[in-house]
Amino acid sequence: MIPVIFGCEGPQLTDNEKSFFREVDPIGFILFARNVVDKEQLYALTSEMRAVTGRDALPILIDQEGGRVQRMKAPHWRNYPPASVFGDLACSDEPSLAASALRLHCRLIADDLRRSGITVNCLPVLDVPQEGSSNVIGDRAFSDDPELVGMLGRIACDGLREGGVLPVLKHIPGHGRALVDSHLELPTVESDLAELSSHDFRPFEMLSDMPLAMTAHVRYTQLDDKAPCTLSRIVISRIIRMKMGFRGILLSDDLSMQALSGSLKERATGALSAGCDIALHCNGNMEEMQDIASAVPFAATSLEKQLAGLIYELHRLEPADRQEMEQRYNQMMQDAGILQTST
């Protein structure tokens, strides 16, 4: 098994993909809109992934945040609002309603994922946006108040876990100050450690006990003027591990994003050498996946067991009554003045 999470090309695995995944045995998979057609197809795809790897407790990831970022869409799944809706609600003298609605929001998302065979959701976004920063985060963030972001982030994690799905904190140690989109180029943040610690880092410190986090492809020049976080041993060891106290499993963000330079081999081995436990490659390009697989070391058995244990623990939870959850959620959103569409 290799410590890499791979994407795939389409709504089902090709024969070439099946052969490749059997041979290299990635630690998990990630899904995007190109992989999602409807409920029956999606469950068949995740079942194929389990069959290819021979593992039931398989990490299968997706970004199902709500708002702009939801890979599973209507009419087959509910349209969910972005995170900022709950931050705004919490600031409008309705903190109790915001907390209850957010918890149920994430509980419903988890139910969607679990019924589809998906075990991990790349949520919550704990980035704290700044005035003038790139809109790549925007309304995906709960708020520009770090303490509120941390509080709502924990509620989101609790809702996902109650629904049998693992959360992933992103983008540690903070993407909210970035002036450009890291999908397209490398963001550079000039702020000093004191400013970052009191603001950007705070939500991640508040949730440092969570089991999974994803790095930011951001270069913090006052911490490491050469490498972005994903490739920086300094940022990962001194900031994420020591200062923040995060002891969970650390994933890189997508290695194929343009914020990173060098070959895919260099990016993958660089991320793992810097301290990421797992490298993430999303686009499903077979040539790139082969290059990465040829370069990375095998994963430690302890990492596989740790992930499997986390997934098994949550899957022991009994599914809740979907209809009852929908009714409560609809009433809460109506009370909040937020129009929602369900299927």
From TrEMBL:
GO biological process assignments: carbohydrate metabolic process; peptidoglycan turnover
InterPro entries according to UniProt: GH (IPR017853), Glyco_hydro_3_AS (IPR019800), Glyco_hydro_3_N (IPR001764), Glyco_hydro_3_N_sf (IPR036962), NagZ_Beta-hexosaminidase (IPR050226)
Keyword Hydrolase found: yes
Gene3D superfamilies reported in the protein's UniProt record: Glycoside hydrolase, family 3, N-terminal domain (3.20.20.300)
GO molecular function terms attached to this record: beta-N-acetylhexosaminidase activity
Record's keyword annotation contains Coiled coil: no
Catalytically driven reaction(s): Hydrolysis of terminal non-reducing N-acetyl-D-hexosamine residues in N-acetyl-beta-D-hexosaminides
EC number(s) given by UniProt: 3.2.1.52
Keywords: Glycosidase, Hydrolase
Domain Glycoside hydrolase family 3 N-terminal, chain residue ranges per copy: 28-296
Family label: Belongs to the glycosyl hydrolase 3 family.
UniProt-recorded name of the protein: beta-N-acetylhexosaminidase
Native species: Kordiimonas sediminis
